[in-house]
Amino acid sequence: MKVAITGKGGVGKTTFAATLCRLYAAEGRTVLAADVDPDANLGLALGFSEEEVNAIVPISKMRKLVEERTGANAANKFFKLNPQVSDIPDTYAKEINGVKLLVMGTVETGGSGCVCPEHVMLKAILSSLVFRKDDVVVMDMEAGLEHLGRGTASMMDQFVVVIEPGARSIQTYGKVKELAADLGITRVRVVANKVRGPEDEEFIRARIPEEDLLGFIHYSAEVIDADRNGKSPYDFSPAAVEEIRAIKAKMDAEK
After folding, report:
1. CATH code of residue 235
2. Maximum average pLDDT range among 44-58, 96-110, 192-206
3. 124 vs 106: CA distance, rounded Å
4. DSSP string, 89-129
5. Domain that holds residue 239
6. Which residues of 179-206 are buried (b: 16+ CB within 10 A; e: fewer)?
7. What is the dihedral of CA 95, 97, 245, 250, to 10 degrees?
8. Helix axes 63-70, 117-129, angle to 10 degrees
9. 41 contacts: CB under 8 Å, gap ≥ 6
10. What is the Cα–Cα distance from 226 to 228, expressed in whole angstroms?
11. pTM, to two decimals
């Protein structure tokens, strides 16, 4: 299973991504979680402490590694567009609760569409992840899909947008669908989070096609408490875990 999870900031996509990883790991699967969001906090949601998360250096910040793999340096303006990166996940991922975490980082200069060594590295690593045929790979993306090339996108099993009951969140879903279509992806699935009751469910159902709606995760004070304490929601909210387990079962059945 290869899953890309996206959504606007604050909707709970990292909670969903982390819990999904923990559920697969509990089945004894080999799970690799790639944190591709510039506001990287997947580590905390998986169970790492703040100190452990702060000690992780994102791949995009490993200048020597980027130079070594791409051949780029101050004296050489040319670099490889297809660097060797297949060993990087196993070498640099940090493991907790049966999940290997790879923090990708972001490119802070040149814009999201730049062709620079760091950007090339990140895209190459994401492409390599889809070839890990025996692993579950969960990518916690930002609201865009800029790091995914057409070849990588075509090999993903699921594209999931996490939304909340609100117009801005629905708008983000529409934009992600457009981006995905540009990559050749015709179907984007939806998980609705922070749902308070029947009115919120009706709001979502009226705007999301039934065949694209994977399920609901209801508002949970326990998840809020987990986030406040920098802990994994998997260990704090049994109700949310069971709702995500049901969503996972639907995803597995459709693979």
Report:
1. 3.40.50.300
2. 192-206
3. 14
4. HHHH-EEETTEEEEE-----SS-TT---HHHHHHHHHHHHH
5. 2-254
6. bbeebebeebbbbbbbbeeeebbebbee
7. 30
8. 80
9. 14, 35, 53
10. 5
11. 0.88
**Residue 204 host element (H or E):** helix 198-205
pLDDT tens for 142-177 read 776 766 777 677 788 889 999 999 999 999 888 888
**CA–CA separation, 122 and 139 (whole Å):** 12
Other residues' Cβ atoms within 10 Å of the Cβ of residue 245: 13
Residues 6+ away with beta carbon under 8 Å from 110: 116, 119
CB 226 within 8 A of CB 237: yes
Domain count for the chain = 1
Question: What does the pLDDT read at residue 217?
Answer: 96
| 39 Cβ contact partners less than 8 Å away, ≥ 6 residues apart | 9, 142
Helix (H, G, I), strand (E, B) or coil at 15: helix
Q: How confident is the model at residue 109 (pLDDT cuts 50, 70, 90)?
A: very low
Residue 197 predicted with pLDDT over 90: yes
Q: How far apart are CA 183 and CA 185, in angstroms?
A: 6
Residue 118 in contact with residue 60, Cβ under 8 Å?
Answer: yes
Are the CB atoms for 1 and 24 separated by under 8 Å? yes
Q: Which residues contact 112 (CB under 8 A, 6 or more apart)?
A: 144, 146
Buried b (16+ CB within 10 A) or exposed e, 149-158: eeebbeebeb
221 vs 19, 224, 233, CA distance in Å?
16, 5, 11
Per-residue buried b or exposed e for 230-243, using 16+ beta carbons within 10 Å of the residue's own CB: ebbbbebbeebbeb
